[in-house]
């Protein structure tokens, strides 16, 4: 097996989830609020056999003290993929930092940033390196 085949096999779920997101984008088009895309994506991923949690609470801690602030992760798939959804004109640094911070706080293995707000669906894929704690973009 060559390197490209290994890469495609290792990250096949990214391609699969992006394909589902493309179906949602094609049907709903840009212009809806994020929640519509979120609900449709959750439904279709569940139909494909993925375990999907929606609006997952992420508490914030200072050492061992739980603070009076929580974040909400849009979707968590198979307990190891955070999907952060947007419905905006373009993706910039703040949206990337949001996903990266969620990955750092949870140590979940993978993250996806998907934007439904432009004419073409936009998707970025990330992985969390357990050894170094670094977040690495994989596409």
How would you characterize the overall build of this protein?
The protein has 139 residues and is α+β, with helices and mostly antiparallel strands. It has a single domain (3-137), classed as Trna Endonuclease, Chain: A, domain 1, CATH 3.40.1350. 38% of the residues lie in helices and 33% in strands. It has helices at residues 3-10, 12-28, 34-47, 93-106, and strands at residues 52-62, 65-77, 81-86, 110-115, 122-128, 135-137. Strands 1-2-3-4-5-6 form a 6-stranded mixed beta sheet, with helices on both faces. Helix 2 (12-28) packs across helix 3. The chain is globular and about 45 Å long. The two termini are 20 Å apart.
Nutshell version of this structure?
By secondary structure, the chain is an alpha+beta fold.
Gross morphology is globular
Determine the fraction of residues in helical runs and give it as a percent range: 25-40%
The number of distinct β-strands equals 6
Please state the CA-atom Rg, rounded to the nearest Å.
15 Å
- The H-and-E topology, N to C, reads as HHHEEEHEEE
Strand arrangement within the widest β-sheet reads 1-2-3-4-5-6
Strand content: 25-35%
Terminal-residue CA separation: 20 Å
Oligomer status: single chain
Note the main sheet.
6 strands, mixed
Number of helices: 4
Structural class: alpha+beta
- Stated plainly, the CATH topology is called Trna Endonuclease, Chain: A, domain 1
The CATH level-2 architecture is identified as 3-Layer(aba) Sandwich
Mean pLDDT across the residues is 95
Total domains: 1
CATH class: Alpha Beta
